[in-house]
Design brief:
Elements (H helix, E strand, L loop, with lengths): L3 E5 L7 H10 L1 H6 L2 E2 L7 H10 L6 H4 L3 H11 L3 E5 L8 H10 L10 E8 L2 H13 L7 H9 L6 H10 L1 H9 L7 E5 L9 H10 L19 H14 L5 H14 L18 H18 L2 E3 L22 H45 L1 H13 L3 H14 L7
Parallel strand pairs: 1-3, 1-4, 2-3, 4-5, 5-6
């Protein structure tokens, strides 16, 4: 049974993609130091989380069946420290949390595996715009104004509000994941305020996961970069135009990856997404209450709880629902250029494959025209006409270890 399990359960948009990428690519190095990151593929923990919570996710839930039990079995079989990380775990219910802890070896009497819960958190001032953008990058066409209305609705009955508060309401997440654990086993990692050292968040993750002193490759290949206001507005308009015609399997590589992540995220001079000035006090007040509540509970805080209060209101707010059309046009030109270049690359690849296919066909045709091939074809035809001949061919193929119908 694993001696220690570090269970990182979110929240989204707190550097989780970069953290998971580093852990996945360094899993062999980690194992040399007794730390297991159980994943044969980079999205293994995502599939396990879908399975644990029985979440529908565009058909991936069928692929995820049994993934949590497989992951937990690997953790239980490990004799050192094990790390599990995915941000959608933040929304797990109490019963799902209970199942997760039990499957990882935790026992109510305090025996068994020493399970720790790690929650990375960021202020609502930055999280709200980031979550709206993430919705847009997943095909949503909702306006920022309507998104804010649904989040601020006290009933929280909409799909968007239910999901958002499930993965972002910090005290509630800590209630669900921490109710069966002592406070010293709950670790709250705060995302630094804007303008700090670029590696400060990684330093905090290093401390929370006990990675100090390990030489790891920190190159991040699977980050989840942010877009500016005009770029997000452009993607929302693209969604409005293509959602009914572009299948989800095609949307992700073309719109989310090629356009949003690899192209539009590079436009760093655009106005950043931010809360409207009249909404900022609501978010700041909620953050302040969360800071006091987390502080009173006595959890292990890695970083500074004051980071959770968030930055001041933006003095130059750009409305993504009414963006500068010049800026949107500039982003659209970059998007078209990226699509043209990628189409040219695919066209060249198609031409190369056609040429290879043609060469293969010519080689096959030449082999068919050889006298030896025609002779073999006649012999095989005659053998297949009789029972003894067919038996002889079967024996020959068995000796040659071939299952094809050719001799």
């Amino acid at each position: 049974m694993s001696q220690r399990v570090l269970l990182h359960v979110g929240t989204p948009k707190t550097g989780t993609s970069g953290l998971q990428d580093v852990l996945f690519r360094n899993r062999e190095r980690l194992l040399e130091h007794g730390i297991l990151y159980p994943a044969e593929r980079f999205d293994a923990h995502f599939l396990a989380a879908l399975d644990l919570m029985r979440l529908p996710w565009g058909g991936l839930e069928t692929e995820a069946f049994g993934a949590w039990d497989d992951l937990a079995a690997q953790v239980r079989a490990h004799e050192g420290t094990a790390i599990i990380s995915h941000e959608i775990l933040a929304t797990a219910s109490r019963s799902q949390v209970g199942r997760a802890l039990e499957s990882l070896g935790h026992r109510a009497d305090g025996t068994g595996a020493e399970v720790h819960v790690v929650l990375s958190v960021r202020d609502l001032v930055r999280q709200v715009p980031a979550e709206w953008q993430e919705n847009v990058k997943h095909r949503s066409t909702i306006t920022f104004e309507r998104f804010l209305e649904q989040l601020r609705d006290p009933a929280r009955e909409s799909r968007i509000a239910t999901w958002f508060w499930g993965v972002q309401e910090i005290p509630d997440i800590l209630d669900r994941w921490g109710h069966a654990l002592p406070p010293e086993r709950i670790h709250v990692v705060t995302v630094p305020a804007p303008g700090g050292p670029p590696d400060l968040l990684w330093q905090r993750f290093t401390r929370a996961f006990g990675l100090d002193g390990l030489e790891l490759d920190l190159t991040v290949e699977r980050a989840n970069p942010s877009l500016g206001a005009p770029e997000t507005a452009l993607v929302r308009r693209i969604n409005q135009a293509v959602n009914q015609r572009l299948e989800p399997a095609d949307y992700r590589p073309l719109v989310r990856e090629l356009l949003a992540h690899r192209t539009l995220s590079q436009r760093s001079r655009s106005p950043r997404l931010a809360l409207p000035p009249d909404v900022h006090p609501w978010a700041a007040d909620l953050c302040a209450r969360w800071v006091e509540e987390v502080r009173a509970r006595g959890y292990d805080v890695v970083g500074d709880l004051e980071d959770l209060r968030g930055p001041s209101a933006s003095t130059a707010w750009a409305d993504p629902d009414a963006p500068s059309e010049t800026q949107v046009a500039g982003a659209a030109v970059d998007a078209i250029a990226a699509l043209l270049l990628d189409n040219a690359r695919l066209s060249h690849e198609e031409q190369r494959l056609h040429a290879e296919l043609g060469e293969t066909r010519e080689a096959l045709q030449r082999s068919y025209l050889r006298p030896s091939y025609r002779l073999r074809e006649r012999v095989v035809g005659r053998l297949q006409g009789g029972r003894v001949g067919r038996a002889a061919l079967g024996a020959y193929r068995a000796v040659r270890g071939r299952s094809s119908r050719s001799a």
